[in-house]
Amino acid sequence: MIKAFRKTREYVSLGSIIIFLLTFISLILFLIVKSSTAFADFFNYYITSPFRVFITTMTSWIPFSLAEMAIISSPIWGTVLVVYAVKEAKKGAKSASKYLCGIASALCGIFMTFVWTYSSGYHTTTLDKKLDINREKI
Q1: What pTM, to 2 d.p., does this model score?
Q2: pLDDT tens string for the chain (138 positions)?
Q3: 61 φ, ψ (degrees, to nearest 5)
Q4: Could you tell me which residues come within 8 angstroms of residue 109 by beta carbon, excluding any fewer than 6 positions away?
Q5: Torsion-angle region of residue 136: left (phi > 0), alpha (psi -120 to 50) or beta?
Q6: Are the CB atoms for 127 and 61 separated by under 8 Å?
Q7: Rg (alpha carbons) of the chain, rounded to whole number
Q8: Helix%, strand%, coil% for the chain, nearest 5
């Protein structure tokens, strides 16, 4: 086991391994939230609220959303990432592997942020049930 871990560490940084494990835990949590409305209500109300407040406080000074910024800047970031990937690939397989795992870790970080902040809100009790409104055709 230790020998396999050392071999893995040659190609994947310890930070990436930790992020991948946390992403796996977040994936399990996401599936639980998706399958249970009661758990989604609990998780949305008690657990994710502080994370949402933190993100809102940290980004309140930006006059646009982070999603808009990510979409608009994605061609620039994509180009930069590809250029650096080519440079890392020229250094060797280990360097390229660590670089690509770093990119994958960043994407996993985005997924974890979504799970721990907003994902449970999509699977909670519907508004008509919360407000005790009868749904009727108009």
Answers
A1: 0.81
A2: 677 777 777 788 889 999 999 999 999 999 999 999 999 999 999 999 998 899 888 888 888 887 788 889 999 999 998 998 899 889 988 888 888 999 999 999 999 999 999 999 899 888 888 888 887 777
A3: -80, -10
A4: 19
A5: beta
A6: no
A7: 20
A8: 85, 0, 15
From the centroid of its chain, how far is CA 115?
6
User: Under a CB-based contact definition with an 8 Å cutoff, are residues 118 and 38 in contact?
Assistant: no
Residue 20: φ, ψ to 5°: -65, -40
> What is the phi/psi pair of residue 24, to 5°?
-60, -45
Q: How far apart are CA 104 and CA 127, in angstroms?
A: 36
DSSP 110: H
Beta strands in 16-124 (DSSP E): none
**Two tokens, residue 82:** 């590809």
Query: Largest Cα–Cα distance of the chain, in whole Å?
Result: 67
Closest by CA to 21, choosing from 34, 8, 33, 10, is 8
Return the DSSP state at 120.
G
Which are the contacts of 7, defined by CB distance < 8 A and separation ≥ 6?
A: none
